[in-house]
């Protein structure tokens, strides 16, 4: 899926991403991407994108990468995420990309990267997701 194909709200995975104007991208073979065009509402007083929004963008790309490796009935939730901010993001299109590095029994580890419109590195990080099952449809285990 290209950036342009993923831009409609109907293709969003949830209302939170839509609230921040984060658009889904690729979700295949352990790779996930997400896109966001910087707007005034994303900036803090110094003019750069607020750090928590960058974390949300990276986490959303990670979710999309995880989704591509989940089995039927599995879901994934973030249990740890660390992001190092390298440079300020001030304008243009931001791209977050995650690559799954390890998929164990229930633990998924991936690295994340956010780049600016010119390909410059904005942030890099590492995260961990855990697979869970919908309790409404999965029998309780004793």
Describe the structure.
The protein has a 6-stranded antiparallel sheet. It is of the alpha+beta class. Strand 4 and strand 5 form a beta hairpin. The longest helix is centred in the middle third of the chain and has 17 residues, at 51-67. It is 15% helix and 42% strand. The protein is built from 2 helices and 6 strands. It has a single domain (9-133), classed as Thiol Ester Dehydrase, Chain A.
Write the layout of secondary structure elements.
Elements (H helix, E strand, L loop, with lengths): L14 H5 L2 E7 L2 E7 L13 H17 L6 E12 L7 E11 L3 E9 L5 E13 L9
Antiparallel strand pairs: 1-2, 2-4, 3-6, 4-5, 5-6
Query: Major β-sheet, in short?
Result: 6 strands, antiparallel
Strand content: 35-45%
Rounded to the nearest angstrom, the distance between the terminal CA atoms is: 42 Å
CATH domain fold name: Thiol Ester Dehydrase, Chain A
> Any idea what the shape is?
globular
User: Helix tally?
Assistant: 2
Structural class label: alpha+beta
CATH homology-level superfamily: Hotdog Thioesterase
Q: What series of H and E elements makes up the topology?
A: HEEHEEEE
* Average pLDDT, all residues: 88
């Amino acid at each position: 899926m290209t950036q342009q194909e993923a831009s409609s709200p109907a293709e969003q995975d949830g209302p939170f991403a839509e609230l921040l104007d984060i658009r889904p991208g690729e979700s295949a073979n352990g790779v996930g991407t997400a896109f966001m065009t910087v707007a005034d509402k994303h900036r803090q007083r110094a003019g750069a994108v607020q750090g928590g929004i960058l974390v949300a963008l990276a986490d959303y790309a990670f979710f999309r990468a995880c989704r591509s490796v989940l089995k039927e009935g599995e879901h994934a939730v973030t249990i740890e995420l660390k992001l190092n901010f390298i440079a300020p993001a001030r304008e243009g299109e931001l791209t977050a990309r995650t690559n799954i590095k390890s998929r164990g029994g229930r633990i998924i580890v991936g690295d994340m990267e956010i780049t600016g419109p010119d390909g410059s590195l904005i942030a890099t990080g590492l995260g961990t997701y855990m697979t869970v099952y919908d309790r409404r449809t999965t029998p309780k285990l004793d």
